[in-house]
Amino acid sequence: METLSSTVPGPVISSQPLDRAVYDATYKASIDDPDTFWADHARRIDWIVPFKTVRSVNFHYPDVAIEWFADGTLNVSANCIDRHLAERGDQTAILFEPDSPDEAAQAITYRDLHGRVCRFANVLKALGVTRGDRVVLYLPMIPEAAVAMLACARIGAIHSVVFAGFSPDALANRVDDCGAKVVVTADGAPRGGRVTNLKDNVNRALNHAAVDPQVLVVKRTGQQVAWYEGRDHWLHEMEATVPADCPPEEIGAEDPLFILYTSGSTGKPKGVVHTSGGYLVWASITHETVFDYRQGDVFWCTADVGWVTGHSYIVYGPLANGATTLMFEGVPTYPDAGRFWAVCEKHGVNQFYTAPTAIRALMGQGEEIVAKYDLSSLRILGTVGEPINPEAWNWYDRVIGTGRCPIVDTWWQTETGGHLITPIPGQIETKPGSATLPFYGVRPVVLEPSTGALVEGNPAEGVLCIADSWPGQMRTVWGDHQRFMDTYFQQYPGTYFTGDGCRRDEDGYYWITGRVDDVINVSGHRMGTAEVESALVAHEKVAEAAVVGFPHPIKGQGIYAYVTLMQGVEPTDALRKELSDFVRAEIGPIAKPDLIQWAPGLPKTRSGKIMRRILRKIAEDAPGELGDTSTLADPAVVDDLVSHRMNRG
Ligand code: WT7
């Protein structure tokens, strides 16, 4: 048996022997007989009517259909709250740390949470929300965000959380796509000492949305807001008028729990649909296993609830497991770059889960600021969102974990519901930069990108697909099952295509190499290049635009835009800023281009297709690796782009 590189003694699991045999045996059982394995493990949640059928899966285009535990019924909110009341009603469920360290933290017990969710659910009912209706949540990172999600789950409504950093336009598109009956928001969102006027954004979004939802407003900052009588309602006023109790509805395992919009390589963002039973089993088992969550631990995932990470590892996984989950409203650098560590010390955090971009940013602030805090409560460190470079991994291990905390580099996606490839502490030895091995029940395969042929043996390199379903898998794209099949099941028949490239080393470990499609990963946030392009060309001075990613030291990838202006428009720095701000307003700050290069022409094939491969190489400052440019309609445009390239090393 091997041990992890544990140098500092302490009551930590990394000082215990690593038992790879446990993983190997459990994994084998999960693959040999998934029906038995998942029938057993699905008992970790409470069913109203127990399921008889474990799974019914067809991965073959064009008949893709995925069901888990389909004849079972349950209520997700009862699983996350009610069933814990007898044993841990007085335990903290949600620990809320506000943006300002001067504002008191709040400890919300499971009993408090029950009361708040029941009232909220009754408010939704009073607004006419019933089973199957959609409710859009556009909220700060405050307890009401979790309360609203659970309240929807309680009555069988489908929530769609929209990240509060998205613009009014982006919000309007999502409200329309899902046909929201209610939008829940707050007056304002404090973040990093500044306030975003969320209610204002909702007003603007609904001004040009096609549907006409009611608006429920949480009072967070107390600021003035423009009010629309008949449409807008204060949460606290309505709560005073509704009954305190709301019995959970009986929901089918395959009834949708939520829709979450995510960017793809083409078109507008798609509404990823997750259902109730399988998703909850997956969020719960991965949260407990991958983070070695033990009763009484304080778990902190720093993501925003607007992303899937927040859904699965702030709300559903932890609460299904009766955990104490920390919700942080602020940012890592406010009031200073020690905030994460101050919060870890203040609340005695045991598991800390963040993104490589945050680690790299804080790494740049030096070790002195970390040394001010007592981080001895930390036991497990996690990362998610993008490949982590070994330098950042080693810093995280040495400076934050002092060599005694296993690091779990968890690879997954909005579509997967929870972790798919990840170390399991105490079972799988880590390697810096590798997400290591598949979680129980997950069957990764590496395919040759152009032919789809299976690459067998180790080492291997190619595109990453998953050969069979797992309970937490997305089921469809909201309102567009064809798009679901086309995106994930058409290109490599019989498997789920992840969109990522990967390498599998001689030990069978997976190393994710990044997206192979036109999706870029900016600070762990997924952005479709097509979305940024369509925002740019919506500007009156822009004739054409092509967007690619380029390596960025902190963000992982930055956004590089090539812009062709309309005839006669002067290319100036002021216009660069104008275009950046325009994209920001159309989509949100995360979509703002880092670099804009004026392009008199774009490299196109004779059939008019933009050759992005070439644009990527120029953006990477690798003009020597352009490859064959002879098929271009006008090879000369490349020379101009190369000589004016903006990212010079
Ligand atoms: C894409 C999914 C899963 C929640 C956060 C992002 C990349 C994610 C890792 C990792 C390497 C990673 C992939 C994936 N990604 N985690 N540990 N190592 N790459 O969710 O917005 O749906 O993005 O993020 O490229 O496809 P998402």
TrEMBL record:
GO cellular component: cytosol
EC identifiers of the protein: 6.2.1.1
Family note: Belongs to the ATP-dependent AMP-binding enzyme family.
PANTHER family in the record: ACETYL-COENZYME A SYNTHETASE, ACETYL-COENZYME A SYNTHETASE 1
Biological processes, Gene Ontology terms: acetyl-CoA biosynthetic process from acetate
Post-translation changes: Acetylated. Deacetylation by the SIR2-homolog deacetylase activates the enzyme.
Entry-linked Pfam families: ACAS_N, AMP-binding, AMP-binding_C
Domain Acetyl-coenzyme A synthetase N-terminal stretches: 23-80
Biological role stated in the UniProt entry: Catalyzes the conversion of acetate into acetyl-CoA (AcCoA), an essential intermediate at the junction of anabolic and catabolic pathways. AcsA undergoes a two-step reaction. In the first half reaction, AcsA combines acetate with ATP to form acetyl-adenylate (AcAMP) intermediate. In the second half reaction, it can then transfer the acetyl group from AcAMP to the sulfhydryl group of CoA, forming the product AcCoA.
Annotated source species: Acuticoccus sediminis
Residues annotated with N6-acetyllysine modification: K609
CDD domains (alphabetical): ACS
A GO term, aspect molecular function: metal ion binding
Top-level EC class: ligase
Alphabetic keyword roster: Acetylation, ATP-binding, Ligase, Magnesium, Metal-binding, Nucleotide-binding
Binding site for ATP: G385, E386, P387, D409, T410, W411, W412, Q413, T414, D500, R515, R526
Gene3D superfamilies cross-referenced by the UniProt entry: 3.30.300.30, N-terminal domain of ligase-like
Organism placement in taxonomy: Bacteria, Pseudomonadati, Pseudomonadota, Alphaproteobacteria, Hyphomicrobiales
Entry cofactors: Mg(2+)
Name of the protein described by the UniProt record: Acetyl-coenzyme A synthetase
Reaction it catalyzes: acetate + ATP + CoA = acetyl-CoA + AMP + diphosphate
AMP-dependent synthetase/ligase domain location: 82-469
Residues annotated as binding Mg(2+): V537, H539, V542
Domain AMP-binding enzyme C-terminal: residue ranges: 531-609
Residues annotated to bind CoA: R191, G192, G193, R194, T309, S523, R584
